């Protein structure tokens, strides 16, 4: 897991939301995909779609998370795609859309739809807690203190409205409050502030 790539993604999403972009792309890795699904579950982003170098069609940008499964690891429920209309022989054949599995791994991108509320970005600030040179590991007692708003070491607790912190654990990437409920520790990844 590269925290340098995560630092680039944090600054990219922060800058894209301040520039009022509706859709942006980031590199497609398992860690970033899981983190973006967590951000979608928390309500910071509107959609997360795996695609190629060009933006996916608008029909696939509003994915629905499976309501029967509470875990984020359940992937997005695919909406039915409209069937292509037969074309005459004079027209050039339309390129068929590729599924994420058909796109080469090096060209895959995560397309993230950003959210806005009253013309203000929902994802206002996003930054690393663990740095590439100093990784911050905490047990469940320290994470519990962070979730309650107290300081733990040199890390500030969650005090602001709409503030979240994400932790990578042996059970996947989770929000701090979820780690506190499950009584598990891990490495602190990033802090996200909402409007």
Strand content: 25-35%
Helical content stands at: 10-25%
Question: pLDDT under 50 segments (min length 5)?
Answer: 71-81
Structural shape:
globular
Largest sheet: 5 strands, antiparallel
How many individual helices?
A: 4
User: Would you count the extended β strands for me?
Assistant: 10
Structural category is: alpha+beta
Rg, please? 19 Å
* SSE order, one letter for each helix or strand: HEHEEEEEEHEEHE
Distance between the termini: 29 Å
Mean pLDDT: 84
Description:
This protein has 195 residues and is an alpha+beta fold. Helix content is 23%, strand content 26%. It contains four helices and ten strands; from the N terminus they run H-E-H-E-E-E-E-E-E-H-E-E-H-E. Mean pLDDT is 84; it is low at 71-81.
Q: What topology does this entry show?
A:
Blueprint: H1 3-18, E1 23-27, H2 30-42, E2 45-51, E3 109-114, E4 116-117, E5 120-121, E6 123-128, E7 137-138, H3 140-148, E8 163-169, E9 172-175, H4 176-182, E10 186-194
Keywords, please?
4 helices, globular, 195 residues
Task: Provide a brief overview of the structure.
This protein has 195 residues and is α+β, with helices and mostly antiparallel strands. The protein has helices at 3-18, 30-42, 140-148, 176-182; strands spanning 23-27, 45-51, 109-114, 116-117, 120-121, 123-128, 137-138, 163-169, 172-175, 186-194.
């Amino acid at each position: 897991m590269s925290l340098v790539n995560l630092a680039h993604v944090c600054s990219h999403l922060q800058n894209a939301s301040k520039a009022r972009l509706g859709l942006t792309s980031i590199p497609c890795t398992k860690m970033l995909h899981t983190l973006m699904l967590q951000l979608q579950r928390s309500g910071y982003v509107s959609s997360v779609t795996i695609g190629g170098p060009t933006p996916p069609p608008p029909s696939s940008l509003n994915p629905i998370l499976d309501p029967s499964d509470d875990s984020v690891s359940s992937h997005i429920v695919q909406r039915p795609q409209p069937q292509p209309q037969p074309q005459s022989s004079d027209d050039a054949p339309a390129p068929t859309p590729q599924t994420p599995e058909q796109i080469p791994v090096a060209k895959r991108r995560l397309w993230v739809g950003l959210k806005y509320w009253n013309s203000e970005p929902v994802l206002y600030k996003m930054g690393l807690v663990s740095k590439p040179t100093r990784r911050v590991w905490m047990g469940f007692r320290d994470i519990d203190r962070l979730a309650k708003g107290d300081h733990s070491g040199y890390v500030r607790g969650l005090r602001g409205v709409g503030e979240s912190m994400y932790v990578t654990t042996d059970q996947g990437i989770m929000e701090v409050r979820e780690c506190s409920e499950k009584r598990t520790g891990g490495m602190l990844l990033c802090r996200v502030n909402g409007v």
